[in-house]
Amino acid sequence: MAEEHRRGRRGSVETSLRTSAVWSSVLDLVTRREADLGRPLRVLDLGGGTGGLAVPLAERGHHVTVVDPSPDALASLSRRSAEAGVAERITALQGDADTLGDLLRGEPVDLVCCHGTLEVVDDPAATLGSVASVVAPGGYLSLVAAQRLAAVLARVLAGQFTQAHAALTSDDGRWGAGDPLPRRFDAHALTAMVTAAGFTVRDSHGVRLFSDLVPSALVDSEADRLALLQLEQEASRHPDFGFLGQLGASLHILASRD
Asked: In its keyword annotation, does this UniProt entry include Cell membrane (predicted)?
């Protein structure tokens, strides 16, 4: 099992077009922090659902608490962690950001992963404040949140110009009543919110710059998939074209709690 997940399975968190760039950054961070601390990390995955991130982290020896409001997702997580042989390193708790203090019983964590959660909570700033309150000094936040400009571009390419205009100009970055997301963010506003919560941003990059726009039939081979991943990674961090990161479907921020 260990050898299989280190090689990477097609469609897994390590290799999926949707998650590979985020996973690479998270894995680099946890590897460094584990070396610094001399022990496995205590990780909180807020809104972690069925364990797409929690299970591979637990497979690497870290202890992960998943807090999610959905009992169905947590039941799936329990089955998935048992099948992966890491159930003893994953704790599944039903709740949300408002209940973190009680759920964790005051025990600080080394890393909070908040991926795809700020878009749907009632108060993003309050959620980040709750997250900050449970992070140990020197601990980190890994935040992934949807960006506005990606929705604008997607609506334009779909020929929905009125919807594109709405996404560009609305306060919440939504393209209309049928938009499945309650809100999207701009990079500068999201960074300011993270800073206001008491974190220091250490790294920020756009993810899924092109992959959501490419028909799946054009990424059918392993070589095509790897080439697209490499293009996305280099485009998001290119010294002259870093602005392309703002076109990513999401922004990934790594920030420390000093």
From this structure: no
167 domain residue, yes or no: no
CB hemisphere CA count around 209 (13 angstroms): 21
Find, among 134, 65, 71, the residue nearest to 98 by Cα.
134
Q: Number of helices (H) and strands (E), helices first, in the chain? A: 10, 7
Look up the pTM and report it. Answer: 0.91
Residue 68 near residue 78, CB atoms below 8 Å: no
Give per-residue pLDDT as tens, 45-87: 999 999 999 999 999 999 999 999 999 999 999 999 999 999 9
Give the domain CATH number at 101: 3.40.50.150
Residue 153 in contact with residue 198, Cβ under 8 Å?
no
Dihedral of CA atoms 161, 193, 199, 141 in degrees, nearest 10, equals -40
* pLDDT tens, residue by residue, 22-34: 999 999 999 999 9
Phi/psi for 197 (5° steps) reads -80, -5
Tokens at residue 245, please?
A: 């990161």
In a domain, 165, yes or no: no
Q: Are 65 and 110 in contact (CB under 8 A)?
A: no
Who contacts 191 (Cβ-Cβ below 8 Å, separation ≥6)? 201, 204, 253
Q: For strands 42-46 and 109-115, give the pairing.
A: parallel
Q: What tens digit of pLDDT does each residue of 98-155 get?
A: 999 899 998 999 999 999 999 999 999 999 999 999 999 999 999 999 999 999 999 9
Other C-beta atoms lying within 10 Å of the C-beta of residue 51? 27
